[in-house]
# Entry
Amino acid sequence: MRVAVIYGGASAEREVSLVTGRAVAAALRERGHEACLVDTASKEPAGRESASDATARAIMGEDVARAEVVFVALHGGAGENGTVQGLLELAGKRYTGSGVFASALAMDKRMSKLAFRAAGVPTPEWRMVLSDDAAGSAAGSGSPVFPDDLSPGDERRAARELGGYPIIVKPNDQGSTVGLTLVEDEKALAGAFELAADHSSHVLFERYIPGRELTVAVLEGTRLPLVEAEPSTGLYDYECKYTKGMTEYTCPADVPGDIAEKMTDAGHRAFESLGCHGYGRVDFRLAPDGRFYCLEVNTVPGMTDVSLVPMAAAAAGVSFGELCERIAETALS
# Structure
């Protein structure tokens, strides 16, 4: 199989994507496939070429044109929000992971939560606060503006309506906890809002769920065990996710069988409620009282040596090379 692994890109998650792409390409080559790497961010822009121009040029390039399958290893931004998927559709290429609509839904945390609710999957309560950019434009960054969205300056009101501190403040359309803050008192609220607003015109305020961080890994045709992440800092943020030694992982997670079964079922329902395909990762919080809450679906999860989908697959007897091969094969179906 000829596979073009598109990776890198210009999002805030570029460095992780570079690691993912290289690992995937190496694994596919070891399985006997012809795999080439295509960085969608131009290192030497032609004139005033934008990041989107560079991405389009990479997708329309010879390496992608020759490939039977495009393995999407882009994290965040255009690689996960449906933009690259749309380009691949227009180019007539088969690609891994979810399609245009599912990718866009999964990247928009508020729209995901609405789908989870409709599917009967519990998710933490939330409020949306618009940044100055979104408040001045109905279009904002592409996320819809709803009648109950709060205006800039309503941050304290959002916290009150969620029952007070601690709360989570994060961009509505980023991945890998980029721009996320656990806010424990009002003094930290303004800085957390500004950080999230640097990444999105819509800032999601979410009730913090104390307890444990668990993941349902989804691989078409295989039921995978739960993974638990125990970060050394108490918050599973970007640094803890991608720095070796900062998080302890357990797979299968030490969770009572009935809860594990229900959470796995809920993870698959959440995945299906967005129309996702192939593989992915669904993140949960498990509260001390045994109730769990779905945080989000990741349609292009990390494939590094500290990533959770490969960890869950290995626990189920699926090697990293076989995992990459099976993901590539889902594109052909």
About this structure: The first strand starts at residue 2 and ends at 7. The radius of gyration is 19 Å. The chain has 14 helices and 13 strands. The mean pLDDT is 91.
